């Protein structure tokens, strides 16, 4: 039986937490799920770990296909933010399945595509850069001094001291909830903000609660995993240790 993404994530987590032992990882999996056998063999676990260490993820191989055109990229952002999150750290294993981009867009497509501008942290033409009053938010060692929460439902995103303050100009689409109709998203343009102040997290497991949209080129947007409002942040699949949470998109207590 083919392993699900959550199962693969759990097995990877248990493998390393038990001293890189495949048999111990399987025992821990069975103990947690109260089962006597499965979900796979030791050989399968070793293959899974080899794939994870070589590629950085446990996802299936990417399918072939042409890259999206700039117009398609705008629609893709709309769908990614409006649809349910594809990943959440509230999942049982906090699965590390953040698949790489399936193909690199051509240079012609890159020049006009929104995901390329976002991935490079480039400014959107005419967008005003928004800065936040961060007094009392940043500790002496440059970390978040307060708990980071969802603005809408109050769900905890980060505990104090789990992220570094970073200045990086990133364009984030306008906030919306899943399955909402982004009326401001016209063809060839997308409504949003150019944000500069962020919390930089270098480990996905540092989050208390966060969700990810489906891939938009080589970018995933961060959203609240409880109420699914977002995006509150930005993550490039080319850099597995950089997760940005915009100070403007969250509240602090």
Automatic annotation (TrEMBL):
Residues 60-111 are annotated as: Disordered. The lineage of its organism: Eukaryota, Metazoa, Chordata, Craniata, Vertebrata. Residues 4-57 form the DUF4817 domain. Keywords: Guanine-nucleotide releasing factor, Protein transport, Transport. This is DUF4817 domain-containing protein. It comes from Huso huso. The keyword Transcription regulation does not apply. InterPro entries: DUF4817 (IPR032135), Mss4 (IPR007515), Mss4-like_sf (IPR011057), Mss4/transl-control_tumour (IPR011323).
């Amino acid at each position: 039986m083919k392993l699900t993404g959550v199962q693969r994530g759990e097995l990877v987590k248990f493998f390393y937490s038990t001293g890189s032992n495949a048999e111990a990882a399987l025992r821990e999996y069975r103990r947690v799920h109260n089962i006597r056998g499965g979900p796979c063999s030791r050989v399968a676990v070793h293959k899974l770990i080899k794939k994870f260490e070589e590629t950085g993820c446990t996802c299936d191989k990417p399918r072939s296909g042409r890259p999206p055109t700039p117009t398609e990229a705008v629609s893709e952002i709309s769908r990614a933010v409006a649809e349910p999150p594809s990943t959440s750290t509230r999942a049982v294993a906090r699965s590390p399945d953040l698949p790489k981009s399936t193909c690199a867009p051509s240079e012609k497509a890159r020049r006009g595509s929104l995901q390329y501008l976002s991935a490079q942290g480039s400014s959107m033409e005419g967008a005003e850069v928004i800065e936040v009053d961060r007094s009392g938010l940043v500790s002496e060692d440059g970390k978040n001094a307060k708990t980071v929460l969802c603005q809408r439902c109050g769900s905890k995103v980060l505990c104090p001291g789990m992220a570094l303050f970073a200045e990086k100009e990133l364009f984030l689409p306008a906030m919306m909830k899943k399955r909402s109709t982004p009326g401001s998203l016209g063809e060839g343009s997308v409504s949003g903000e150019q944000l500069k102040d962020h919390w930089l997290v270098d480990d996905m497991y540092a989050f208390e609660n966060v969700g990810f949209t489906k891939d938009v080129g080589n970018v995933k947007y961060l959203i609240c995993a409880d109420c699914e409002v977002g995006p509150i942040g930005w993550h490039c699949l080319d850099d597995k240790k950089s997760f940005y949470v915009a100070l403007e998109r969250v509240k602090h207590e």
